[in-house]
Amino acid sequence: AGGRVVFAIIQSGGRQVKVTPGAVVSVDRFAGTPGEQVTIEQVLLVGKDGGECVTGTPFVTGARVVGVVAGEVRGDKIRIFKKKRRKQYRRTKGHRATLTQVRVQDILV
Q1: CA 70 to CA 59: how far, in whole Å?
Q2: CA distance 31 to 29
Q3: Is the pTM value of this prediction over 0.85?
Q4: pLDDT digits 0-9 by tens, 81-96
Q5: What is the spatial distance between Cα 48 and Cα 26, in angstroms, rounded to a whole number?
């Protein structure tokens, strides 16, 4: 299987994220200090230049994504609005998740 790896789709915290070498991606928060190296082994798909794709069942065996923790950031605000009509009941609540930013260094197969 020739060609260099162009992108990968990883699973982190129940979400699927497309990563490319050099990109900074936001994933669900995990314990890690900025500058710490992390390895993500839950790789679902690897795309190579030339259009070739390697898919996993569910994960690609031997594939991993190596990155460095770049810091933490707050996600977009989600508004939770509850209402029961004709009952004078309205509740509004906001939520912002804390995300960990990872700078992807390399995708290894």
Answers
A1: 25
A2: 7
A3: no
A4: 999 999 999 999 999 9
A5: 23
